[in-house]
Amino acid sequence: MVRPSQRRAMAHHAVNAQRTTIRHACATFALSETCYRYQRKHADENAVIADWLVRLTTAYRTWGFGLCFLHLRNVRGFTWNHKRVYRIYRSLELNLRISPRKRLMRATPAPLAVPDAINQTWSMDFMHDQLRDGRTFRLFNVIDDFNREGLLIEADLSLPAERVVRALNQLITWRGQPQRIRCDNGPEYIGHVMHAWAKQRHIQLDFIQPGKPQQNAYVERYNRTVRHDWLSQWLFDSIADVQESATRWLWTYNNDRPNMALGGITPSMKLTRVA
């Protein structure tokens, strides 16, 4: 199937070579004379859009059209129509190839309560990965459920309860103290060290039911983004490399990456709007 733009180009070539008339060329290539005489508008602006799309998909290789468009509209402030941006996106063949997954039918869990202010509820969880030399390291992730803001990614080969408490104390120093923290039943959370710390600070620990990760859905969805957008894209030689890269990515997540759960704005933008 030849696109109209290609048929128009062939018709122009035939007429410019003085081989036929406009009317005959349009009939030959199945074009209307209106389409033949159409002049492209905003060609320079289309080049700007294409440049932005190429730069975004190069810098953030896991971003599809939705995130790219929301970033241009909400973060950068451009007013381009989504159909126009998508047309250029498709013409550049930037589409993500995503293989479909077989999904199991499960009962729909009850929706989690959404806090109406910061520091009402935090969620925390662990992740695992490997360094280039095969050593396993852990990540300790903390988010604020109100605006899905990533508050902390702490990386090390081992993260015992004492290290978790120290990281939370450092976080509270600049962020403020939460009313409650949602977590699973990992040994770092259910031990006496964590309980004593929470009691001393008057913070409520909300433990999910064993085997029910959907009850901690906010941080579980955040972990998927961490894995897909950052962790799976790089190989690290040391914990220092992991921590430095995590700090940079966390800034991008909070300030540049549109969040679908927030209506296509970034966590920092939501925080600014309610300030």
UniProtKB/TrEMBL annotation:
Domain Integrase catalytic: 111-275
GO molecular-function term, one example from the UniProt record: nucleic acid binding
Transmembrane segments: none
Name by which UniProt lists this protein: Putative transposase orfB for insertion sequence element
Species: Gemmatimonas aurantiaca (strain DSM 14586 / JCM 11422 / NBRC 100505 / T-27)
InterPro entries in alphabetical order: Integrase_cat-core (IPR001584), RNaseH-like_sf (IPR012337), RNaseH_sf (IPR036397), Transpos_IS3 (IPR048020)
Coiled-coil region: none
GO terms for biological process, alphabetical: DNA integration
